[in-house]
């Protein structure tokens, strides 16, 4: 299918959206944009940038605007966010925009499943370059409407909760993963966020016009003020003394990666169990682009046993191996649990330890964050 | 490795014998050695007879690799499953990873066939031999191999191939099965579409095969159907239903199972899961910096080669993987359980000296249970 104007209003980051603007008589040069600075789409765009970055969502009142106005407001928002030069802000923006698209697709699913399937399939192929096949296949008591190639499915599902999204809990047949439309809509999020992030990051704005620079400066200030600094390493354990798996996760978190659920669970249980205060653990996660304080607090407090009463222990090494989180190196000896790493190393020294370490072995192993 | 050689009692005579046999094999096999595709983008590693490792080797043509094998006569030859822009760079992070074959290692030890308890043993410095259950302190475990080990591995390979082909849609011609030369199987998948999968995606594939984090409710949900509905199942739900059908002799709808198991449906499912799960070594599949034994090279644990099993049902690796010649070598054996290789049965032996074909002597010497007598 080719996207109609209504759809393009919700896909403002693709090339056809720009073409629609031209057809509707809007120039795309920066000068023309500044000339129209008093038009409603400008204020809507500045607000859109702020809402996305600071609140993690895009205001629903946008939905009532004409498609070209929606696209223009996105362009303004993207310019503002790009001008902040803050990668964290760009990631937050991209994620909020991807969630907005997902919500629009959900609305479509609720009103017309057939249309929604066509739209989803077009989004997968045109934006992600993936083939989401429409099917009507009954497997036992379940009816599946779409399937996606295994490789594509894995690349989109890696940051999602494995107990629901892991392929072991999906029907996989003939190299395709079977889904209902709702799952296909949710699965889009990380892929779309990546595309938006790349798109916004690659925008070149040599000298932003004053109104955009002002809006960006204001947003920047707000981001810096509210984004917590990297959490001070808690307790008496310094970061160098953490086991390699934990160090690797922290590094990925700081690089702005959206971590898989299993990695978050490991990090949270480890920190809670070494006695880091709950607020500091939550602050660690605040560097994640999809950070939601309410949800994170609930989960961390749950892990710490403040809700539900059961305190969760750190997953054992074999489990981490199975989850692809183990970054074992020669300092790990034969520990069975990351928490034991601390017990067997004297505090304050970087290596050596109790004489059981075997330096030089497995030194060529590379950890996943280097890939 | 040097320690390991000393531990295995490999002295100068033994190493010279093995090296001569390996040299003879590699010269004879030079023109028919298996070479990894896109060799120029692979790291190659040797285990050498002086006990060292040479890693980060890089060859731009098959001829260069063969020439180096003939010059070095390595004890083991390995190649990276990963492709790199600069495979010879000694720093992993500077090699420039571009993709990797998907590989699986099935180690018979993990399958716990009954034969292992019978033939594996501990050999102590005083020459005493102990069964596995005794777990003596300070003694060396010796792993043995027999046709039952091979059959256990073969069965697991067939389970793996079924999932790879039927569920993951991998074409049979993209999959090659090899006997490791010791007592395992290696399965190589060369599918361009899967090359760029990172560690996490590979971990997901392992998790799928081993059913490590399956959700019982997910599998049970698929049985909440009619007898006709069971016929439409696919993937794991289909295999689980198939096992339950054989076990209980009726179509395993949830309703039927609840009656038959007196409400213990979850236990019945988890028992079926244990039957169908495929046991692979997770690290081997996930570790993208690993170097993997090269097909047609000799395995330092036995002197047998890593040999292609084109027909998994029919191949007879303990016969086909024999690579070293059969000229007679006199050895002194401390202890050896029955050994079936090269189409004949040898032993069991205890404190005896005799002449054996070189490939049998090489097996026993490599296992550290025999010394060469000049």
From TrEMBL, chain A:
Q: Which domain of life is it from?
A: Archaea
Give one GO biological process term.
DNA replication initiation
Task: Write one Gene Ontology MF term.
Answer: metal ion binding
Task: List the coiled-coil residues.
Answer: none
Q: Where is this region: Disordered?
A: 341-371
Q: Which InterPro entries does the entry link to?
A: DNA_primase_C (IPR058560), DNA_primase_lsu_euk/arc (IPR007238), DNA_primase_lsu_PriL (IPR023642)
**Name by which UniProt lists this protein:** DNA primase large subunit PriL
Quote the gene name from the UniProt entry. Answer: priL
């Amino acid at each position: 299918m080719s996207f109609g104007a209504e759809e393009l209003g919700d896909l403002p980051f693709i090339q056809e959206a720009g073409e629609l603007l031209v057809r509707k008589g809007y120039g795309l040069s920066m000068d023309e944009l500044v000339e129209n600075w008093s038009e409603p789409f400008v204020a809507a765009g500045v607000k859109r940038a702020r809402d996305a970055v600071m609140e993690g969502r895009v205001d629903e009142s946008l939905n009532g605007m004409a498609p070209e106005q929606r696209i223009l407001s996105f362009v303004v928002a993207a310019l503002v966010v790009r001008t902040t030069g803050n990668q964290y802000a760009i990631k937050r923006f991209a994620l909020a925009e991807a969630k907005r698209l997902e919500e629009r697709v959900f609305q479509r699913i609720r009103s017309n499943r057939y249309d929604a399937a066509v739209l989803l399939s077009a989004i997968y192929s045109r934006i992600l370059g993936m083939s989401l096949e429409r099917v009507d296949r009954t497997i036992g008591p379940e009816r599946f409407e779409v399937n996606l190639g295994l490789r594509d499915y894995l690349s989109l599902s890696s940051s999602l909760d494995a107990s629901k999204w892991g392929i072991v809990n999906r029907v996989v047949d003939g190299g395709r993963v079977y889904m209902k439309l709702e799952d296909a809509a949710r699965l889009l999020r990380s892929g779309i966020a990546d595309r938006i992030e790349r798109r916004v990051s690659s925008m070149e704005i040599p000298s932003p016009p004053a109104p955009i620079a002002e809006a960006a400066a204001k947003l920047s200030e707000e981001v810096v003020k509210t984004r917590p600094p990297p959490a001070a390493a808690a307790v008496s354990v310094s970061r160098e003394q953490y086991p390699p798996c934990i160090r690797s996760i922290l590094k990925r978190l700081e690089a702005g990666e959206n971590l898989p659920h299993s990695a978050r669970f490991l990090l949270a249980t480890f920190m809670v169990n070494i006695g880091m205060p709950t607020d500091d653990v939550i602050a660690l996660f605040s560097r994640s682009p999809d950070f939601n304080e309410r949800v994170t607090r609930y989960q961390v407090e749950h892990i710490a046993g403040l809700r539900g009463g059961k305190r969760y222990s750190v997953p054992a090494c074999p489990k981490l191996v199975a989850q692809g989180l183990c970054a074992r190196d020669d300092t790990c000896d034969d520990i069975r649990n990351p928490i034991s790493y601390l017990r067997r190393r004297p505090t304050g020294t970087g290596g050596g330890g109790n004489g059981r370490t075997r330096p030089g072995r497995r030194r060529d192993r590379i950890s996943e964050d280097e890939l | 490795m040097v320690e390991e050689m000393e531990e295995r009692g490999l002295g100068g005579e033994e190493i010279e014998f093995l090296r001569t046999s390996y040299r003879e094999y590699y010269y004879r096999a030079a023109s028919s050695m298996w070479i990894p595709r896109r060799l120029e983008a692979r790291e190659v590693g040797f285990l050498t007879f002086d006990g060292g490792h040479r890693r980060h080797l890089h060859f731009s043509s098959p001829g260069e690799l063969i020439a180096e094998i003939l010059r070095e006569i390595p004890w083991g030859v390995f190649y990276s499953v990963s492709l790199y822009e600069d495979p010879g760079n000694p720093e992993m992070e500077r090699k420039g990873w571009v993709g990797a074959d998907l590989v699986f290692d099935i180690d018979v030890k993990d399958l716990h066939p009954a034969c292992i308890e019978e033939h594996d043993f501990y050999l102590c410095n005083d020459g005493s031999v102990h069964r596995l259950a005794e777990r003596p302190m300070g003694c060396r475990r010796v792993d043995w191999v027999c046709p039952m080990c091979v059959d256990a591995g073969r069965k697991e390979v067939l389970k793996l191939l079924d999932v790879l082909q039927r569920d993951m849609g991998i074409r049979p011609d993209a999959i090659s099965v090899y006997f490791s030369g010791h007592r395992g199987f290696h399965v190589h998948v060369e599918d361009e579409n899967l090359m760029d999968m990172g560690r996490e995606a590979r971990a997901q594939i392992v998790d799928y095969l081993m059913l490590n984090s399956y959700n019982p409710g997910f599998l049970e949900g698929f049985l909440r159907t009619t007898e006709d509905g069971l016929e439409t199942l696919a993937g794991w739900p289909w295999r689980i239903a198939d096992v339950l059908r054989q076990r209980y002799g009726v179509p395993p709808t949830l309703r039927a199972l609840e009656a038959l198991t007196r409400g213990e449906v979850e236990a019945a499912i988890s028992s079926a899961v244990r039957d169908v799960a495929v046991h692979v070594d997770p690290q081997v599949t996930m570790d993208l910096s690993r170097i993997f034994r090269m097909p047609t090279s000799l395995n330092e644990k036995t002197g047998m080669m890593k040999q292609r099993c084109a027909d998994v049902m029919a191949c007879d690796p303990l016969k086909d993987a024999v690579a070293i010649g059969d000229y007679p070598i006199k050895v002194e054996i401390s202890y050896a359980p029955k050994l079936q290789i090269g189409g004949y049965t040898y032993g069991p032996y205890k404190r005896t000296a005799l002449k054996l074909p070189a490939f049998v002597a090489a097996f026993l010497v490599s296992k550290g249970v025999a010394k060469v007598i000049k």
